[in-house]
Amino acid sequence: MKPVKVGICGLGTVGSGSFNILRNNAEEITRRVGRSIVIEQVGARRDNDMCDLTGVNVTRDIFDVVANPEIDIVMELIGGTTIAKDLVLQAIENGKHVVTANKALIAEHGNEIFAKAQEKGVMVAFEAAVAGGIPIIKTIREGLSANRIDWLAGIINGTGNFIMTEMSEKNRPFSDVLAEAQALGYAEADPTFDVEGIDAAHKLTILASIAFGIPLQFEKTYTEGISKITAEDVGFAKDLGYSIKHLGIARRTDQGIELRVHPTLISKKQLLANVNGVMNAVMVKGDAVGPTLTYGAGAGGLPTGSSVIADVIDVARTLTADPDNRVPHLAFQANSLSDLPVLPVEEIESGYFLNMSIEDKAGVLANITQILSKNGISIESLIQREREGSDLVPLVVMTHIVKERNMNAAITEIEALSDISGKVQRIRVEHLA
Amino acid sequence: MKPVKVGICGLGTVGSGSFNILRNNAEEITRRVGRSIVIEQVGARRDNDMCDLTGVNVTRDIFDVVANPEIDIVMELIGGTTIAKDLVLQAIENGKHVVTANKALIAEHGNEIFAKAQEKGVMVAFEAAVAGGIPIIKTIREGLSANRIDWLAGIINGTGNFIMTEMSEKNRPFSDVLAEAQALGYAEADPTFDVEGIDAAHKLTILASIAFGIPLQFEKTYTEGISKITAEDVGFAKDLGYSIKHLGIARRTDQGIELRVHPTLISKKQLLANVNGVMNAVMVKGDAVGPTLTYGAGAGGLPTGSSVIADVIDVARTLTADPDNRVPHLAFQANSLSDLPVLPVEEIESGYFLNMSIEDKAGVLANITQILSKNGISIESLIQREREGSDLVPLVVMTHIVKERNMNAAITEIEALSDISGKVQRIRVEHLA
């Protein structure tokens, strides 16, 4: 078969990683695909020292790449949601297949992009958009295609997991670890995107769509960051046999879809609780297969490039296939997507870890437990400890599963008590079973 | 598109699981594939109470199924390597695509079966043959297709992992846990197949072929069981921060392929060391992606059926594709398989854990360390303990990585010392890095 010709747009971390994989593993890839994959053109504002561009057709205008009639597959590796969107739509318009690593673009504009791709009969592949090198899109969309997916839960932001791991292993405060993560290059100067869960919400949006067959609904994803988690919270969780992880969780209920990113207590016995540092992992629970977990590097040029090039190979293999018999973009046929609503966060169900400062005197505990009981909340475990040199002592309560609306009502009542100092810290608990 | 018609041969655990998934998730599957998958015929010696066969065309002769002109895909779920082989070859001869869960058949006769399938232009899919519901074949063959795979290591026999987990968590002896596993139905009356690693060797043979692009070479797989592991070995390993797991390991070196199943010490910090009970997990290290791990149920009707039906869906999707542009059976094009040899076990390289009984007197330790040193073996750590009421004390040595040939020579010399009682227990150590 004749070679497949690709054009690479963007030569940053992921672009250069993808370029180098195509170069270094060319022989292995040809042995697999039965045809070579040739870099026909590279579009980048500047060269990258990581890539030997000798003999490569390089243009400074990425739109040259999508206009190049020789090119079968356009790799969009520039990031962002403005120029990248124009680029991808133009590539589709020109009849090119597209491979992208752009989670924000897919999460925010995927519905429009996939509709256009379907109209033009081309593929838009996006394995690299979620969890870097972990083939989680393929796992859910194809590997578990026999299942009705019940829920998924993942550590899908390496920066956040590095911070939570360091806080847990070394009892360090958030701000201290964040500064180190910035020094190490794991976190940006403005860490909002990672630390407040926006990046994870982009990825969760995509995972939920392909798991349940719903349109992409980034704007409905509940997002809560890790910046308010204290070393004390982490310590109490540990004492109770739990780790605090920043998880993206999507669950299908009869009422609708839970779609939420937030700090979460999970049992130390869970494999997911033992995923440390910058690594990513996603649990998926299917009705036939039961719980599964997939683990690997969630970022970096080569791991993310591994997913980009796997997509290029997949697209190369379907170039000769019937467009109506491909794996659909969102795992389900475009005309069979579900209109199951995304639930408001008040409607989700979860266990809760509550950490509050109370006055060390009779009756306070009774008031609190009464408020919880009145709101239909039952207590699983409780820790009250002395705090030296203070009249205030910490009280930690772990509850059974309850609707968030009830918990909100209880917390409002508890915070109104005169014997409570400040806010109640509330962290959700998941049993992943 | 018109429905895809399948025939199920065998209605045991996996057959009934697959049947019920197709029935129960019919709507979800049709939403995914864009066409329905219809059970045209079932061939089984007897009915199964787990399946509602009302209105199903059932035959007692499974060869009716492969002869049925209506059927597109034959599901071989009878097991064994005699009738199953005839059935699969006949199905291929008749131009049917085949989906099988049969690890022994693929590991021992896959080369012949795939050659015939290639000749006839049909697919033989076998995701369910390795690690039950975990989509590890798809992960390696497609998800990590951009990588040169360096090595893989897996817990790929649930019975063995249940036994090792119980021995480790409860300090129980092997024979005791095996009896419980048999009572629970995890182990057969004759447990040889699981406990001596033959089942794992079948699976490892398949994984190695698709990772490295080599023909299936079951007969060259080194296989060592767990029946000689003692509670004392497990205890010492724990003290050193290790778990003992029964692993299948395949590694590519410049000299050839290491292909081996044996008990293995791995650090407790490894995610793989925390995979417990009957669960399976496979680590794969690619040059671009780095280390990955995939975890899930390795057996059972529904988990294994999850992989069977995912294969049926995959085949349904390639029915309209160019046969020369499919994912090759062994991940690499049939004419591009490598002739890299499988190394004899003496040529493998590994760390070692040695456990021996020595006389508690001066000079013994010096003799042993001298023998190790002379054979080029350096010691990483060492434990010598008192044993009450005995002149013999246990000596445990952990070594750095060395060639097995050297270790064999050293052990022969150590066992010849007059101050050693009995054999030296030798367990390999892997760092998985």
From TrEMBL, chains A, B:
The keyword Oxidoreductase applies. It catalyses: L-homoserine + NAD(+) = L-aspartate 4-semialdehyde + NADH + H(+). Its EC number is 1.1.1.3. PROSITE patterns: ACT, HOMOSER_DHGENASE. InterPro entries: ACT-like_dom_sf, ACT_dom, Asp/hSer_DH_NAD-bd, HDH, HDH_cat, HDH_CS, NAD(P)-bd_dom_sf. Belongs to the homoserine dehydrogenase family. The keyword NADP applies. PANTHER family: HOMOSERINE DEHYDROGENASE (PTHR43331:SF1). Keywords: Amino-acid biosynthesis, Methionine biosynthesis, NADP, Oxidoreductase, Threonine biosynthesis. This is Homoserine dehydrogenase. Residues 353-429 form the ACT domain. Pathway: Amino-acid biosynthesis; L-threonine biosynthesis; L-threonine from L-aspartate: step 3/5; Amino-acid biosynthesis; L-methionine biosynthesis via de novo pathway; L-homoserine from L-aspartate: step 3/3. It is an enzyme of class 1 (oxidoreductase). CDD domains: ACT_HSDH-Hom. It comes from Marinomonas phaeophyticola.
